[in-house]
Amino acid sequence: MMNAETQEVRLPDIGEGVVEGELVRWLVKIGDKVLADQAVAEVMTDKATVEVPSPIAGTVKELKVKEGDTVPIETVMLLVQKELGQSTKPQSPETKSVQTKPIEPQEKKIVATAAPVASEINPPVADTKVLATPSTRRLAREMGIDINQVNGTGLVGRVTREDVLKNNLIKEVISHPKSAMESKIPPSNTTSFVYKNQNFGSSLVEEKVPLRGVRKKIAENMQNSKHTIPHFTLVEEAQVTELVKLRAQAKEQAEKRGVKITYLPFVIKALLATVREFPMFNASIDDSAAEIIYKKYYHVGFAADTPNGLMVPVIKFADQKTLLELSHEIQELAQKARAGKLALDEMRGATITVTNIGSVAGLYATPIINHPEVAILGMYKIQDRPVWKENSFVRAQVMNFSMTCDHRLIDGAVAANFMKAFVNRLENPSVLMLDMI
Fold this sequence. Notes:
Elements: E1 4-10, E2 20-26, E3 33-34, E4 39-45, E5 48-53, E6 58-63, E7 70-72, E8 76-83, E9 96-97, H1 108-113, H2 134-142, H3 161-175, H4 177-182, E10 194-195, E11 198-199, H5 213-228, E12 231-239, H6 241-256, H7 264-277, E13 283-286, E14 291-294, E15 300-302, E16 304-306, E17 309-311, E18 314-315, H8 323-338, E19 352-356, E20 375-389, E21 392-406, H9 412-427, H10 429-436
């Protein structure tokens, strides 16, 4: 029998200035056989999930950290026992982005012999064609429900935990109608409550899910922003009837070139033209040095709703790009965000952000600033409204906007003048076109 030696597997330097990551999920358990370069863990860093590979082949002997732990780089994550006679020179511990580097055909041996993840740790992952968060997928697997058959009521058809729980109740009623209904009838010595004609007795069902991954990062960033920045929000409306006509014309031409054009690139153009007049909106505050940093470049972040939470892709040097170039990049980055394929660099460096809440619903909101930026523009749905023009009411298409500002740098009067100039550009496309030449 051959002797064996144990090697430490550490969280490698991921680059991009990352100094730590959160262990989202183990992909192996103690006793599993692993191959060199086989992914053993998923780690979340700055909204991007990466797979950590084992640099050697062997047997997993010990897991040194727990799911949910924050792990600094170079921390020992697990111990792998390798057989003597194998190459002692480990391969480079390069991390691989989740879903960004599919297994190539020549790596068939990895697919065929990789040890499966134990179902008692993570239930088997079914082929899925619907939008849902990892916790919702897990709940569906644990309940034995095919998530592809669940009707999603969430944003853009996303399946929510409530959808899964409702589907499970329907499943119980169909399979065991009598026992399922009896289980909802409370004993005579307990209190009960009724919700939508369903009597659930005195026991309120709760589900506890660890705050991990993207949702944890979002929570930390939002809390830091609200704690650091004194927010205030100004709301204004714009009569965009002429802009709607301009966009319709541009849309037709863009489609011929295979590009989908929305209102967002027009809004970005108007925003950046106005920011040039009000440079404090394209700045940040360095608290430690007590300095205001005015950015001479324009990187625009835009909020993108994804199955894994809110992502903010960044369009670099947006002021130097045409409407078609902006439209193409917005479309490309949004697709990558929904697929979980955004690189870290594609989510960093924004100098100001736009959030398009109106694509879903809402008249206006109070968005939270993406620290260390000092402003975020909210755009909302277009509505037909009667507006007073000259001596009568006329039908117009109106769009609401909100500007949330850092009151340490931007005063209310400055924000009001900014919005006045911004709205003027959107209401008068000829003015906007001059800025775009």
